Amino acid sequence: xxxxxxxxxxxxxxxxxxxxxxxxxxxxxxxxxxxxxxxxxxxxxxxxxxxxxxxxxxxxxxxxxxxxxxxxxxxxxxxxxxxxxxxxxxxxxxxxxxxxxxxxxxxxxxxxxxxxxxxxxxxxxxxxxxxxxxxxxxxxxxxxxxxxxxxxxxxxxxxxxxxxxxxxxxxxxxxxxxxxxxxxxxxxxxxxxxxxxx
Length: 198
Description:
Blueprint: E1 9-10, E2 13-14, H1 20-36, H2 40-54, E3 60-62, H3 64-69, E4 76-78, H4 89-102, E5 107-112, H5 116-128, E6 131-137, H6 138-143, H7 145-153, E7 157-161, H8 168-181, E8 186-188
Parallel strand pairs: 5-6, 5-8, 6-7
Antiparallel strand pairs: 1-2, 3-4
């Protein structure tokens, strides 16, 4: 796997553009990631959780009728919907939560739009005994009541964000503000394709 340089760049891309208070936390995260990436005990725990808790490897299903209806190309579906929590999101959150625990963090924060990342984060936080706060735009809270219920049922505090467009972008902004203020004990399990290296 290609790793970025010390500034977080992959060639001309990447980098770290955050509040100064997060620089030390990001360096701590990078060091922990590099340490546990090659730690046999950590990797064994992650593999065991992926297999026995998440349900991986997820099955592959041959869609015979769909294959026939599309000219005979053989189409297979990877059934990530059968993972614990009902989506692929838990594949990410379980590893990050295990890393957070190894780093001594006691609190997890996340942002979510449709709620699947929030549910996956709340699930692994509950499993590992970590406090969990999920930020969600007010519009998304109203649209995704079932997922909000699931997060709360799992012990997460769901914070409705009423600023801006009241959607994912604003939830991400609030989560970043929280992390800046609570960096010592908090691990941010980011769920969208945004944010600084690492």
